[in-house]
Design a protein that fits this description.
Length: 513
Amino acid sequence: MQKNEDPLKKIISHAKEYGFVFPSSEIYDGLSATYDYGQMGVELKNNIKQYWWTAMVKMQENIVGIDAAIFMHPTTWKASGHVDAFNDPLIDNKDSKKRYRADVLIEDYLAKIEAKIDKEVAKGLNRFGDQFDEAEFRRTNPNVVRNATKIEEINKRFKKALEEEDLKDVKALIEELEIADPVSGSKNWTDVRQFNLMFSTELGSTADGASTVYLRPETAQGIFVNFLNVQKTSRLKIPFGVAQIGKAFRNEIIARQFIFRMREFEQMEMQFFVKPGTELKWYEYWKSFRINWHKALELGDENYRFHDHLKLAHYANAAADIEFDFPMGFKELEGIHSRTDFDLKAHEEFSGKKLQYFDPEENKNYVPYVVETSIGLDRMFLAVFSSCLKDEELEDGSSRVVLNLPPALSPIKAAILPLIKKDGLPEKAREIFGTLKYDFSIQYDEKDSIGKRYRRQDAIGTPYSITVDHQSLEDHTVTIRERDSMKQERVAIDSLYAIIEERASFRNVLKKI
Ligand code: GAP
């Protein structure tokens, strides 16, 4: 499939058909950018969480976890800067009454020019075949050069306008580029204005003096406000980290691309508190640790790249994204940020409480610096799911759809399948189910032909299918079919626990980090 050809369609439909992800409240036609995880999805999601938590908390001597509330005191968000600066630039079309993110309109415009360049390059490749030097072609072809220059100029002006909060110029750019409403084609735009992305609600009833509270837009602040609680009760010494997995909420205006950008999503974040001056060393350490965590899953090293931020947020002195090659191209999967002492200092100022660490080696108090790793769980789900879903042509001319998940992440580790539904085979299969069920997520299935059952397990990513046949009753052996090679081997029933444990647990993946 070509990258631009509705790349997510197949993934969305497979996720729905096999119980991974459903549109939320679908019987009421769904709620945009909100999704529910089904019976398979919840298992995959839990396994991703377990992989993260084991690597980031259990395996670390100096990192502990917490689970903070979603609601926090409203001043938290004043201190963090979210009340004043967590905004998207919005524009309305006066004719269609539709609302857009001004930056997305401009990005879409740029993507069209990028597509023109790609088309030109493809034409060159067609014409010159093996002799084609793409880099030279991009440097010299007049159409490509003209379009690349145009992209650069638009980007430069747009960035400048945003940095200087010059929303008039953002509107002027949209008008000069003659960007039309994608729905109505109208170019009749309102002014651009900033829109805060936090969801708010009222705490308590209005009668007894309600106050506005926010659904947290990031989990990190729950860690910052608990910095001293954790430090004092754990007696951890700097450097140390606090990790958390939890829901976050953002009123994304353009929420699209399936579970890539949602209004309710989950983050897995870790704040690492360090001595001022050592933060850039730790920033490099966590960049390298996090990319190794990703690569240990063996989804393909070529699917990852770092994107270092050139323009830094006011509180950061270094920041990078780990980008993943999603079906719609390379996009941010995780952020690693050196956040200085901005957050703790801001909370000191707004709360009037000291948030400092006494360093026994230095014999003084200071506000620690923070290096943060922050990954979206749903984005990680999409990265894993989309890169593992394959259409395979088989040697016998047939085809199959297989989800070749790393076994440790698979929702079901093994399926127990009696070859036929009689002759005592179901009973034997259930006996095996009974011995394995305490340690692994397994599935018993006796419906349909064995071939159909294998295909069903392939489609949900089960790495091992265990078939109980007549020989099993005689010699206490079964066949175990491996999902990717489709090879079968005959093994003793007594060895099943050890085989699944060795091949499908996290241990071997974690050892690679
Ligand atoms: N505490 C830092 C922070 O929240 P961020 O770059 O805004 O940084 C971190 O978000 C990660 O959270 C992103 O890399 C992405 O994986 C995930 N994320 C952010 N917004 C999201 C959304 N609307 N839907 C799904 N995931 C999102």
